[in-house]
Amino acid sequence: MSWVALRGALDKDFAPNGLGRRGEAILFDAPMVRGSLLVDWRPDPGEAAQPILTYRAQAPWDAGLCLSRESDGPLRLRTWQGADVAEAHLPVGTIRPMEDMAILYTWDAPERAGRLRLLDRGGRLRAETAVAAPVPLSWRDAARIGRDTDLCTLGPGVGLAALADHVTPIGPWPGLAAETPVMTTRGRRPVSTLRTGDMVVTHGGQEAQVRWCASIGLPARGALAPVLLRAPFRGLTQDIVVAPWQDVALSGSQVEYLFGADRVRCAAGDLLDKTRRLPADGLALHRFWNVLLDQPGMLLDVAGLPVLPLALGPAGDLRHSVLGQMPPELSPADRGGASLRPLDIHEVRGVLARRG
């Protein structure tokens, strides 16, 4: 299962065996029977209709995929192959101006099932609707979306568009690079080596059991590109690579004064003066990891920094999430996570400014 096409400001790529890999030729007219279209999108605050992705081709037959936001708010998807057409409308409610969002369209042709979803930048579900009898793209369509700027155009608020040959799970997505050190009862270990039953030592010095270790590979571009948290920020003993959506905990007198709480949480990507976006180094993809613990409210000790683990959240269907492969008996009885107040980017700047 791979990401096979990538379009962005600096990228026009298609690789049917996976980005960054060489492989055998394919039948371009064959359908992608399962797949995902992921769009990194920052909505314009205006009320006019907004094109997001527009792909139209007339040879060897009429085909296309159009994704847009209508003037009254909903997302609209229309995809077709010849006379076969599938459409969906997704009401999305209120979106803050210039908020980083992700649009995820997935299809499974053998199951005649598709979903159009609006996600926050960490893959958490904001809204979704079913796409009845979705019309799969062909491999030729995927190549054109990845490379042909005449047949496929991106709207002004789009940072990237990527295609995968599998159904991509929703979040909350893991956000730690594979080698990120997590404190365990056996010392610090790379997060990617943790397994069900391992014991971690939390940032508060307590022991907690790993119920599941999840990972996801995503395009490393635009708002999805990894960031570098630099030591000695907030007690870090070494630099670590994380996803911009990975939540970390902040504490101290500034937090208590501003928010009346011992701890709050914020996304790593909002720590503007303590992070930097990793440069485009030729790697189109990055795999992130994180763990689900048996106790809610615990914080991982990641190179000395308090970091939030995965959380189940409210009761719901996990089949479409990164925890979809977890056996039900491993699910913690208490589904809550760390009940810390989330900060927006302006509040984070206020905390950092008070640190001088």
From the structure above, extract its key features:
single chain; 356 residues; mainly beta; Jelly Rolls; Endonuclease - Pi-scei, Chain A, domain 1; 2 domains; seven-stranded antiparallel beta sheet; 26 strands; 7% helix; 40% strand; Hedgehog/Intein_dom; Hedgehog/Intein (Hint) domain-containing protein
Could you please describe the fold and organization of this structure?
Helix content is 7%, strand content 40%. It has three helices and 26 strands. The protein has two domains: 162 residues, Jelly Rolls (Sandwich), CATH 2.60.120.200; 174 residues, Endonuclease - Pi-scei, Chain A, domain 1. With 356 residues, the chain is mainly beta. It has a seven-stranded antiparallel β-sheet with strand order 2-1-12-3-8-9-10, with helices on one face. The protein has a five-stranded antiparallel β-sheet with strand order 7-6-5-4-11, covered by helices on one side.
State the gist of this model.
With 356 residues, the chain is mainly beta.
- What fraction of the residues are assigned to beta strands by DSSP? 35-45%
Low-confidence stretches: none
| Biggest beta-sheet profile | 7 strands, antiparallel
Report the oligomer: single chain
CATH class category label of the largest domain:
Mainly Beta
Number of helical regions:
3
Mean pLDDT across every amino acid position: 89
Order of helices and strands: EEEEEEEEEEHEEEEEEEEEEHEEEEEEH
- Kindly provide the radius of gyration, computed on alpha-carbon positions and rounded to a whole number of angstroms: 21 Å
End-to-end distance, in Å? 46 Å
